[in-house]
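Troubleshooting log. The previous run stalled partway through. Resubmitting the same three chains, unchanged.
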Amino acid sequence: MLDYVAIFLTIIVAALMAGGALLLSALIGPSPAKTKEKERPFECGLVPIEEPGRRFPVHYYVVAILFVVFDIEVIFLYPWIASFDEVGLYGFIGAMAFLLVLTFGLIYEWLRGGLEWH
Amino acid sequence: MTGFPSISWNLLLPQIVLLSTALFLLLLAVIYRGGGRSRGATVAGAVFSLLGLGVAAFMALAQYDTVADTFGAMLRLDPFSTFFTLLIIGGAALCVLLSVREAGGLKAMAGEYYALLIFSVLGMVVMVTAADLLVIFIGLETMSLAVYILVGIGGERENGAEGSLKYFLIGAFASAFLIYGIALLLGTTGTTRLDGIASGLNLAEGGSLQLVAVALVLIGFLFKIAAVPFHMWAPDAYEGAPTPITAFMAVAVKASAFAVLLRVLNVSLLPLADYWLPVMWTLAVLTMTVGNLAAIFQGNIKRMLAYSSIAHAGYLLVALASIDPAAAGVGNDPAMASVLFYLTVYTLMNVGAFGVLIYLGGGGRQMETLEQIKGTGFRYPLLGVAMTVFMFSLAGIPPTGGFLGKFYVFSAAVNRGLISLAIIGVLNSAASAYYYIRVTVQMYMRQSDEQLPGLPFSLPLAAAVLLALYGVFQLGIAPSDLLTAADRAVLFLR
Amino acid sequence: MEPLAVQYDILRWIVLSPLLGAVVISLLGRTLPRKLTGTIASAAVGVSFFIGLAAFIKLKGLAGHGHGEQAAFLSDTLYRWLAVGGLSVDVAFAFDRLSAVMVLVVAGVSALIHIYSMGYMAHDKSYWRYFAYLNLFVFFMLVLVLADNAVVMFVGWEGVGLCSYLLIGFWFEDPEKAYAGKKAFIVNRIGDFGFLLGIILIFWTLGTVNFNEIAGQAPAVLVAGGSLATLICLLLFLGATGKSAQIPLYVWLPDAMAGPTPVSALIHAATMVTAGVYMIVRLNVLYLLAPAAMCVVAVVGAATAIYAASIGLVQNDIKKVLAYSTVSQLGYMFLAVGVGAFSAGIFHLMTHAFFKALLFLGSGSVIHAMSGKQDIREMGGLKKKMPVTYWTFLFATLAIAGIPPFAGFFSKDEILWKAFSSPQGHWGLWLIGFAAAGMTAFYMFRLVFLTFHGQCRADEKTKSHLHESPYLMTVPLMVLGVLSVIGGFVGIPEILGGGNGFHHWLAPLLGNENGAVQVSAGVQHWPHAVEYTMIALSVAVAVAGIFGAWVFYIKQPEKPKQLAERWPLLHQLVYNKYYIDEIYNVFIVQPIKLTSTFLLWKIFDAGVIDGVVNLTGSSVRGLGRVAARLQNGYAQAYAVTFLIGVLLLIGSFVW
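Second attempt completed without errors. Output:
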């Protein structure tokens, strides 16, 4: 159990820091009068021009997801390259199988029109 | 320098076939993309899915007697895994037959439907052949992600999207617990291998942290079988999903989760049997009772079958609570074999019931509530008879397979001296007759308020219903072969 | 000594013939002419009867002097049903002395009722469906009585319940009738659960479900009077109370009268409802090991006998009177088996099958003539219009009232005597049975007098239609009439100069495994004078009942009304069947519904989940909105339930 003391301590300290900051600001910070103006959102002192939660085109997400997928692919390929000599043909086939499956996904997305912006 | 580790690729043939089929179907989907050609996509999709499943089943059948470890002992092939591989593939094939009409209605997503279905089957097969918790996790996620999408596929049904989202959120929640549990087990026992965990478990040293880990791992699987209180997602997801997918979830997802549960409990967690057996007892009682009581008050048949499937998970948990730790791997334990038998029967009768429901909906008139199926028994006599048989089987009335399944499970419980559990179980099954019979009462003993339309004939649907009907009777009247196979399969759990 | 088993291959056709009939009719029934459909159905059952007769003769030929030969049986194994983990069950039939009696009674009465139905249902639009169900019923009933093990018996047991449900709800256009069918089915499921558990317990204690092996092993394995034996027997008896309509599960039988009258005669009087009695006699070895359970059986039987008889006193629906009478007579049979007089129970089962089937068929004939009316207050004076019906009905009534030498006299008298004299008996049990016998005579003759005697009280239109039924209906009545008269002669007690052949026929199957200890060992300790007195008393009470009915309903017809007015509360109580249905509804049905609605719906879903939702503050939607969306609870609420489950599970592990 002793091994975990550090973890517990970290949790407690983190909770105290976060909670304490909120508590302190509530206690010692000025409590302004609640007027209508004060409740409104603002941007650098100006009234916001548009809604903050703007909607992005769905394509943006598709491309983003695609990026994540290939990003992770690269992460997997690094260790393979680093140990290329050791894993040999077995490693090569494994990596190729991995790439092949991903390629199928890419072909699918491409044909499906996921890469076209409009 | 390790060189080329010996991997017996031929042992992996079912998985390879399934993966190729799924990838091929994905390409097929884009070839056939566009609304106008959705019919071509669904027919081609169904045909190639069945073909792939058939070949995979054939491969699995060919290695039925093989007992081997492969992939650096990450996968384990034995009659137990093959039994479940075949059960899952069979259930999936029946669901493909049920899907032809429903998938046709999906228009743009018709092709992807089958690809996703096969992907999830692949995940299940990996799950049941896995010998390592991490591989189980990978299989489980492959299965789950595909099913999450299938629940909400099409996007036109409002409650489909709702059910899908809920399933996904809670499913992600459950997966987090599972992976956390695996991590804790790795930390405390030094391995994620199923057989290694058993020897690594040491309560004196690992203390309660190991127990927490075990609990978290079990929760991951209990979620998939919709055991109370991890069941809340099930009614929404079942009701929202396209009906064939509902059948698929109730049948294949549940079977694979039970397979893993059986393997993990027996191979890894046997030293802790004193801890989990009473937990299974409690869960079984809760799951049966909540499932049955809630099912009584459902007007929607799909939702009723969702709760009924929760109740059936409860009966199966009765068998898990009756496992004899002393018998594991040495003699045959009726408790474990009864799970295999029950799941097979359950697959058939559930697919059949959903099949009839889909068939009834073919006339352009919704057939989902008790109100809507009034008088259908006489308008469509064969469907009426089939539905009656499935309902009786679900209620556990002889001479159907459902009776033998329940008989087997409850006698396993009595065998272990769990008489009170058996009494609760049999009482539950007596109560369940109420809502199953209500379906036949509505079909036969009430007049429909309006003229019932004629139903277009559908070969795949008819084939699925007839196969299920045959199976339910076969397993009720001459079940010996399956019983022998189930008995033999559980001998290899170690 | 093991009983001798003789392979007899045609045994299976006793069972398969009606199944074949059912299949043929359900496939071709729509297209075949009506007459042919009915003939096929009747012939299928007739075949069963004649094969049964052949088997009976063969069985008789086997009888030697050793116990093994006397307990010999014919057997026919179809195939191994399941063999797993020490449990092996064959689909096999055994024809021993007990099943011989049952097969002949079931197939014989069924055949007569099939013939009768051809006349009775002649104008029904679902004629073929009726005969398909009826044949299917006979199939399951024969499976039940011929089964050589408990699991196959259970298949028959559930099957007859299923057919009963289908036939009660046969005229499903009437929601009341469909409801009656459902009620019968569900009440029976409660009993079946006991039966099933009993079977499972038998298997795990004795390692077999085969009846012969159970009989052979039970005395060695089970402790006599031990809690295990008692538990098994009580569970089995729970099954019997459901199927045979005993307290507390009798409520479905009176409602079951919603079915066509021949169905009431066949299923709810002669055959299916006696299955519970048969089952207990079949497993008599187990019951002998559990005296406490036998005592329960006897007390429940006696209580049911008098309770149902008292309700029968004031019912006005001709079929309801007969229904309560059936419940009451079944009570007698349980009283008999409860005091160890197994052969007397089966004897009464047989004679009851004759005269009660006849009574129901006769009432069917009356209802047929009365254009469907069933209220006896609207009948009267039918004697002249329907002579055959009247005379056969009268014979059956004399039989049930226990007037010598009609069939019912011998069987009922034997039960009363055994209730008094057997070691498990008690004078209290006898007194209850004795009082119920008086009531039986009274309400049955009330029925006869109100229906057939006096002035006709029907309206003119009905009156003009009055007619005797066609031959198809009256011939079965006459056959059953003859049986009601002479059926008792096979069991004339020794004291009246008979050989009590029936008892000796069954004796090798009763008692413990070597047959040395006979159940009725206590009989000879009583002086003959006592037995004569008892016989005289039971005849006297029957005559008194008849006389009472004559006074009330012929001589002074205004008397019953006066009595009802003098004790209005009592009359209301009895007339409304002691409000048992209402009590069940309030105390059993509603609580379950409420638990379900409130606990699960309102409290669990709405209370816990909504509460949690509000607590987490993740939703600000109003309670009303939530209530409207009850069925689509919130995902975050699901997650919280999940989390609670996780904590509980971890807690239970770590604790």
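Takeaways: DSSP finds 20 helices and two strands in chain B. Chain B has a mean pLDDT of 87.
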